[in-house]
Recover the amino acids of this structure.
């Protein structure tokens, strides 16, 4: 260490800031000054500790003392006792919830860290372009173990016993999938990695491929050994150039090291991996469409059965797994299925990676054990809603998922519970919405996405979703009727029952879940012609409050369509016929004179 | 590179790398070997991580501070990109977020030179399988 002997870290996350952590910093600095310790102690504000419920958090280095529920007036005691006399302030120390004893070193706080990284174990830790760093983290050890110590049946048995389920969304047991592919006869089989990540706001798979490409390659080879395949294909979208680049480097390095290619580890097993590029069609994430796209045909789904495990790529048995599913394989082999099965809940084992986005403070990539609640994710890991707004909904599962509300916040996250709540696990996108989001518009956004991405093969999806989108459009424009809602409901059911593939079968979910949870908002749009979030342009009007308007001309100058009339120092007026409701005047006005009705 | 054909080969690479790392830690001159990782996934690069990476490499060389700067994947703190992890010899790694060139300069001058922490620390908020 340099000149400073102590560092005091004060949490500057939103949660702690709102409970006066700024004042704590100020008081600490004053105390330090009063005691002439400026060159001895330094106070630093940090990002969120992810432990907001016990905030404000103060941590003293180098001894890692972890203080919780700290108040500004505690600053004196921390400086006098801890820094000057070297005695920890017992009453502020974090107490273990089980033993109720104070925990002195933050490293011993068990549940402090909500996140557990299995899939992301190397992400942000190793250099993804250096295979040796991966090997140094026990990389390719699992493959070695499989090839030399385990039979293919034993490998499948381990994966089955671990309880791992597909992370692409539907949650089919991975071991069972492998077993079916292994049982399919034929010398030529394929292992396919589905890296066609298409949900809006989701970037889990991309991050794994960019941060730890070898974990996927190794798992694909293990899968190849288990099902008897010697070729692997990664279907990745061309929009992921960085992931493609790193995968190419990784494949090349693995081949150079003899970890891919002929006679791996000197055994009879050979396995190679090639890349296949997708053009970014959402439907190609569906496994049959993905296979057709890889064969060079149109990316359209076909009826299952036959399942790819029986007849897939080039009509050969093919096992398709998602990136995240593969990234779980090596740790399961090394640490054992019992270890993996001990994490998570009864039906959903292990962890899940989520891409946390939207109106949340700590936007980012998180990996949490199954069974965690949405509340923990939003308020503890995510640091709460941006700008202290009110939480309204969280959208999970992308366009196939639904919006969950306040009442679902304490539901443990599992495949089944999310479906029961009207959404789904999906690939792991989570978009948080606050009071400024209009739920009818949100449903429309997802429907528009589905309409654009529908391959057009089956009528329910091609025509039905288009109608859904049109009805929603009508409602957001203020022309909806109550009959439209009935129509929406019926249409949703018909589409779900009759569409060909997963895309169509789940596309009405955003409509159904918003109808269920935000019925009032639909009615308001139809009956009162109002949008409470002020998002539906046809239902809102901008006005200038004559009381507050100073006649500064700022809004009039900024208005792109010259809809604001008024002289200097005189009250301005918006011409409603010209106004395009772009909201520029509202952003421009410094006097809160513009309002929306 | 000779092909890896046995468990020993794998262990050797692991051991080599571990030795390299521990050599760095046990080096006599503690300032001599600082390890820096820059989060360089698509989101990091979009936020300017490449510039920070180049800046760190160039400046550390200019200022004669021997350090190993490597790229790494997404650390998960998307809200705070670009993110840089600094590990001083014998100490826990510290992650800094919102790293601009000015911030990188501050990190070099204050933290790397003097061990003085600067604003923008992101506390690690997860466990990995190594801890379990």
């Amino acid at each position: 260490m340099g000149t400073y002997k102590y560092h005091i870290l004060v949490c500057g996350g939103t949660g702690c800031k709102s409970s006066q952590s700024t004042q704590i910093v100020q008081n600490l600095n004053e105390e330090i000054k009063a005691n002439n310790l400026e060159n001895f102690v330094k106070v630093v504000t940090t990002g969120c500790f992810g432990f907001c419920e016990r905030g404000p958090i103060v941590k003293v280095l180098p001894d890692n003392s972890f203080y919780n529920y700290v108040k500004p007036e505690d600053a004196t005691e921390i400086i006098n006792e801890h820094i000057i006399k070297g005695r920890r302030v017992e009453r502020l120390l974090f107490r273990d919830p089980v033993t109720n004893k104070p925990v002195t070193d933050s490293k011993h706080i068990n549940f402090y860290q909500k996140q557990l990284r299995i899939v992301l174990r190397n992400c942000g830790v190793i250099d993804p372009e250096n295979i040796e760093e991966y090997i140094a983290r026990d990389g390719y050890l699992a493959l070695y173990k499989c090839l030399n110590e385990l039979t293919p049946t034993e490998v499948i048995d381990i994966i089955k016993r671990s309880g791992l389920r597909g992370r692409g969304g539907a949650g089919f047991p991975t071991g069972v999938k492998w077993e079916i592919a292994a049982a399919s006869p034929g010398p030529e089989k394929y292992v396919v990695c589905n890296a066609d990540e298409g949900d809006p706001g989701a970037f889990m798979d991309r991050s794994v491929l960019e941060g730890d490409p070898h974990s996927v390659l190794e798992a694909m080879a293990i899968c190849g050994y288990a099902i008897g395949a010697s070729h692997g294909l990664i279907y990745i979208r061309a929009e992921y150039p960085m992931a493609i680049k790193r995968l190419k480097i990784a494949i090349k390095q693995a081949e150079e090291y003899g970890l891919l290619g002929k006679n791996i580890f000197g055994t009879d097993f050979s396995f190679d991996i090639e890349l296949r590029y997708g053009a970014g069609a959402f439907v190609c994430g569906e496994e049959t469409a993905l296979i057709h796209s890889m064969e060079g045909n149109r990316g359209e789904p076909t009826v299952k059965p036959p399942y790819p495990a029986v007849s897939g790529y080039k009509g050969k048995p093919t096992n398709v797994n998602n990136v995240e599913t593969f990234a779980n394989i090596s740790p399961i082999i090394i640490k054992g299925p019992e270890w993996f099965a001990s994490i998570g809940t009864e039906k959903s084992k292990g962890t899940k990676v989520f891409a946390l986005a939207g109106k949340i403070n700590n936007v980012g990539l998180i990996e949490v054990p199954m069974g965690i609640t949405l509340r923990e994710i939003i308020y503890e890991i995510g640091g709460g809603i941006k700008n202290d707004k009110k939480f309204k909904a969280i959208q999970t599962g992308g366009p196939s998922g639904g919006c969950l509300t306040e009442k679902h916040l304490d539901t443990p996250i599992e495949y089944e519970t999310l479906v029961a709540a009207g959404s789904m696990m999906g690939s792991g996108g989570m978009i948080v919405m606050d009071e400024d989001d209009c739920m009818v518009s949100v449903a429309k956004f997802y429907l528009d996405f589905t309409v654009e991405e529908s391959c057009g093969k089956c009528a329910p999806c091609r025509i039905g979703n288009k109608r859904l989108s049109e009805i929603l459009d009508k409602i957001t424009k203020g022309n909806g009727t109550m009959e439209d809602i009935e129509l929406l409901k019926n249409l949703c059911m018909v589409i779900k029952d009759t569409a060909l593939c997963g895309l169509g079968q789940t596309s009405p979910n955003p409509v159904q879940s918003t109808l269920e949870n935000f019925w009032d908002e639909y009615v308001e749009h139809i009956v009162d012609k109002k949008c409470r979030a002020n998002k539906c342009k046809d239902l809102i009007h901008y006005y200038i409050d004559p009381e507050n308007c100073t006649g500064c001309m700022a809004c009039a100058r900024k208005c792109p369509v010259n809809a604001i009339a008024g002289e200097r120092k005189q009250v301005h007026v918006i011409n409603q016929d010209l106004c395009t409701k772009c909201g520029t005047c509202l952003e421009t006005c410094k006097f809160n004179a513009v309002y929306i009705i | 590179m000779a092909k890896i054909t046995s468990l020993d080969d794998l262990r050797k690479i692991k051991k080599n790398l571990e030795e390299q790392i521990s050599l760095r830690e046990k080096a006599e001159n503690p300032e001599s070997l600082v390890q820096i990782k820059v989060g360089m996934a698509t989101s990091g690069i979009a936020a300017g991580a490449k510039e920070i990476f180049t800046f760190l490499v160039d400046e550390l060389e200019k200022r004669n501070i021997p350090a190993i700067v490597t790229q790494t994947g997404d650390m998960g703190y998307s809200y705070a990109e670009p993110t840089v992890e600094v590990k001083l010899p014998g100490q826990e790694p510290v992650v800094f977020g919102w790293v601009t060139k000015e911030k990188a300069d501050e990190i070099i001058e204050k933290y790397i030179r003097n061990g003085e922490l600067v604003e923008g620390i992101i506390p690690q908020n997860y466990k990995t399988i190594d801890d379990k």
